[in-house]
């Protein structure tokens, strides 16, 4: 497998966590979203992913984009360890939380949107994350055990940790979100979350390396 990734991309990080949890070895092709006007806009990358976004994963003779589609494929083809619970209610909760982050928070504060916001980008990002986290904190108070849904790591957790990293980067006050903070702290102690961390990627700048 070949993963087209950017060290700081939260969508790429979700996929890196899934690959690490499932023990799938892969090669990384870094795509720098800032250099050369954005390497994702190159003709070569556009031919592979017309949306011109990371991540993209070449695996089993196909090329997939969109982080959740990739993770679902890995779940379907390499089911251990499981990232979706067997219980239909818990499974729905995992998908709900993942969608809440992937559709309701992250796209509103990603690079392409922030470019449009000019000088207001920090304030915009903080507002988007804060409103999303207010809802998420309430949801997690009903679903969480050790992790987002019960005590097993799920697809929801793969979405949560990178989004909290975004929140910290945009200096969001995490004080009002004790459940989000507790779950994230526990997840960051797991090896799969450590090895996939933005501070430990091949394209991480020296000053940001762990």
UniProtKB/TrEMBL annotation:
Signal sequence bounds: none
Cofactor: glutathione
Domain GST C-terminal residues, every copy: 87-206
Biological process annotations from GO: glutathione metabolic process; L-phenylalanine catabolic process; L-tyrosine catabolic process
EC number(s) stated in the UniProt entry for this protein: 2.5.1.18, 5.2.1.2
GO cellular component terms listed in the entry, alphabetical order: mitochondrion
Domain of life from the UniProt record: Eukaryota
Provenance organism: Hemiprocne comata
Cellular compartments annotated: Cytoplasm
Keyword Ribonucleoprotein: no
GST N-terminal domain span: 1-82
Name of protein: Maleylacetoacetate isomerase
Family classification: Belongs to the GST superfamily. Zeta family.
Catalytic activity: 4-maleylacetoacetate = 4-fumarylacetoacetate; RX + glutathione = an S-substituted glutathione + a halide anion + H(+)
Any one GO molecular-function label of the UniProt entry: maleylacetoacetate isomerase activity
Keywords carried by this UniProt record: Cytoplasm, Isomerase, Phenylalanine catabolism, Transferase, Tyrosine catabolism
SUPFAM superfamilies linked: GST C-terminal domain-like (SSF47616), Thioredoxin-like (SSF52833)
Pathway participation: Amino-acid degradation; L-phenylalanine degradation; acetoacetate and fumarate from L-phenylalanine: step 5/6
């Amino acid at each position: 497998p070949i993963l087209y990734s950017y060290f700081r991309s939260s969508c790429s990080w979700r996929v890196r966590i899934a690959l690490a949890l499932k023990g799938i070895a892969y090669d990384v092709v870094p795509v720098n979203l800032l250099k050369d006007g954005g390497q994702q806009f190159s003709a070569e990358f556009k031919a592979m992913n017309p949306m011109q976004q990371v991540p993209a994963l070449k695996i089993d003779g196909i090329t997939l984009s969109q982080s959740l589609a990739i993770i679902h494929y890995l779940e379907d083809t390499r089911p251990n360890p499981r990232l979706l619970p067997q219980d239909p209610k818990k499974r729905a909760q995992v998908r709900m939380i993942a969608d809440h982050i992937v559709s309701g928070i992250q796209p509103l504060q990603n690079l392409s949107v922030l470019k449009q916001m000019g000088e207001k980008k920090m304030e915009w990002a903080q507002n988007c994350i804060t409103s999303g986290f207010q809802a998420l904190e309430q949801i997690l108070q009903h679903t969480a055990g050790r992790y987002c849904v019960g005590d097993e790591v799920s697809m929801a957790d793969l979405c949560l940790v990178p989004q909290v990293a975004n929140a910290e980067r945009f200096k969001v006050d995490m004080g009002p979100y004790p459940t989000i903070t507790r779950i994230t702290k526990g997840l960051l102690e797991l090896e799969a979350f450590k090895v996939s961390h933005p501070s430990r990627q091949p394209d991480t700048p020296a000053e940001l390396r762990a």
